Amino acid sequence: MSKTQNTTPDRNTEEAILQAAKRVFTRKGFAAARMEDIATEAGINRALLHYYFRSKEKMFERVFEENMSHFYGSFISILNAPAPLDMRIRNLVNAEIDMLLANPDVPLFILTEISRNPDMIKSKMEKMPVREFMMIFVSSLRTEMQKGTIRQIEPVHVLMSLMSLCIFPFIGKPMFLTVSGMPPEQFESLMQSRKKVVADIILQMLKPEQA
Amino acid sequence: MSKTQNTTPDRNTEEAILQAAKRVFTRKGFAAARMEDIATEAGINRALLHYYFRSKEKMFERVFEENMSHFYGSFISILNAPAPLDMRIRNLVNAEIDMLLANPDVPLFILTEISRNPDMIKSKMEKMPVREFMMIFVSSLRTEMQKGTIRQIEPVHVLMSLMSLCIFPFIGKPMFLTVSGMPPEQFESLMQSRKKVVADIILQMLKPEQA
DNA sequence: CATTGGTTTAACAAAATTGTTAAACAATGA
DNA sequence: TCATTGTTTAACAATTTTGTTAAACCAATG
User: Fold this and answer.
1) Which chain B positions have a beta carbon within 8 Å of A181's beta carbon?
2) What is the pTM of this model?
3) Do A160 and B194 touch (CB under 8 A)?
4) A24, A49 contact by CB (below 8 A)
5) Which of B134, B150, B169, B200 has its CA 20 to 30 A from that of A21?
């Protein structure tokens, strides 16, 4: 919110509200988030939320779309870059984990909302080039298999493993910290070391059999 | 609900309500679940829910505890069994994936509720022997490392990978099906084939270096 | 310095959701 | 068959949450 009032629509206020909404929705999900929470987070009162965004649903849509971009955005560009497969995988894992460190609550948010409103995904998904990404990835694997440079393996298991290994630790973080007794500050450095671990696992999966 | 009314408290009705509550809470989470939804699912009306369980919170607690047992239950017994490490890992993965096939919505439910109410976990967790499980697992890995039968590797990464590879596909299922275009009926058989894939990955992680 | 126009708010209204109660009901046993 | 007792419900009350509005406010401009 701007302390100094303007005669033109206040982009800053709108943006500040949207960012507050993003924080609250992303942490709590649609159903548990209260308009009051968002107003407080933005430092204003509820009526103003409706002035800028007519309803809770409309605000949520904006937040969902932004988070969707974060979630899928990191994939896109990397696998197009012309580089050896192993480097592309290492780059992908690094970018993905960096994105997750910057947006740790996004995966649980996205997957929860999708599970609970599966129809939403259909429409939103079409705006995102996710399927293209999948196809590119799968077909580069198949090409390498033909050449015999990697092992015969279902590409779907490779992709599923890659995503699982990167994303799950962030979804399971609170449980993991409690169970392990690890101090929260240490989590980031664990994820940094995890970049190499994950990439190594995936490349090991692909390595031609030898014994 | 029982069609025939009794003069003694009706265990069946109570149980039927609890099962209905479990289905609804597990699919929608606490905040999005409506008492009305649960009543409808159980084939009765709302007042009866309060007759058996005073409040939404109390019903939820029962459901949460049951789901918590499912979530952690499969781990416990297996790693105690005296068998070679590789067999114990294969058994663990098989049991875990079987549990998930029977309760596909449980992980997202548990992790969502824990994220949004981290305090709850502290108290509930103490009733579950999860930490013990972790300790057993970690120390058996360390023992093998001492003996040189497995590679030097952070046990925490092994455990984290194991859980990620098993659990994440169920959390990401709706997204995954949409993105891949795979028909839902095929998901179960994918998970069956995944048992071997996951166990192989973990054992590969542990195999002494050789190249 | 008064008017103008966007901005902000407090107070209010409407809707959705949870929780309560008094009375009807159905099976059992006297 | 009638009274008893646990079961079930419809109607109601309370609370929580979302959405609306009229009026106050403030900066810019003439």
Assistant:
1) 131
2) 0.92
3) yes
4) no
5) B169
